From TrEMBL:
The keyword Transmembrane is assigned to this record: yes
Domain of life per record: Bacteria
Protein name (database record): Uncharacterized protein
Keyword Membrane included in the entry's annotation: yes
Ranges annotated as spanning the membrane: 37-61, 73-96, 125-147, 163-187
Species this protein is from: Flavobacterium micromati
């Protein structure tokens, strides 16, 4: 925020009449930066959906369920995917709405409220996605362990050996934690960076509003 810092220095050095002009300039700059950040949040969320949709084309769950003779589960997976996509679309709509609202905001207090509202929406979005990753891991391991006939030998070994059971549980937990951790890191880098910049704008607006 080098431009913003320069404006603030000029504002502090000048008299009251020029301070008012500088305050307006600072607000306009923060407004423009905040609008740009929210726009990028919207863009990243759309790109994320497109990416997962593209990757899903290479992993046909329906064929896997047919191979293990459990085609009755296909319907449940379809419902699960439709509900997930519907919720994601709602989040994208909220991101778009936040972008439109922030772009049209004309007061400092309202912009501060809109920034906080946008941050909460993004945080809910991230937590929802992490929750879905955890749920997907549980479902995937359950299907592989319970419904896959090839796992019968493994289940027999686990039933006869407590150590094998502990190793299996530990492996599943470690794999889930690693998988969720990778997603958390992705969201931390992408959305976390944008949210930190957005909150920095909020703090600057708070100084103006004092």
């Amino acid at each position: 925020m080098k431009e913003l810092d320069l404006l603030k220095k000029d504002w502090q050095k000048s008299d009251n009449s020029f301070a008012q002009v500088s305050e307006n300039d600072i607000y306009k700059m923060i407004h423009r930066k905040s609008s740009s950040i929210v726009k990028w949040i919207l863009i990243f969320s759309i790109l994320e959906v497109l990416l997962w949709t593209f990757l899903s084309l290479f992993s046909n769950i329906d064929n896997y369920l047919k191979e293990i003779n459990h085609i009755e589960l296909i319907l449940y997976f379809d419902i699960f995917n439709y509900v997930n996509y519907a919720i994601i679309i709602v989040f994208i709509y909220l991101f778009y709405k936040n972008y439109v609202v922030i772009s049209a905001t004309t007061s400092t207090k309202k912009l501060m409220q809109d920034i906080l509202k946008t941050r909460r929406t993004v945080q809910y979005y991230v937590w929802y996605n992490l929750g879905m990753v955890l749920l997907s891991c549980i479902i995937a391991f359950t299907i592989a362990f319970v419904y896959n006939p090839e796992m019968e030998l493994v289940k027999d070994k686990i039933a006869a050996n407590n150590i094998a059971m502990l190793i299996t549980i530990g492996f599943l937990l470690l794999t889930s934690i690693l998988f969720i951790g990778l997603f958390w890191l992705f969201y931390k880098v992408v959305y976390g960076t944008l949210l930190r910049r957005l909150y920095a704008n909020y703090k600057e607006l708070k100084k103006i509003d004092l």
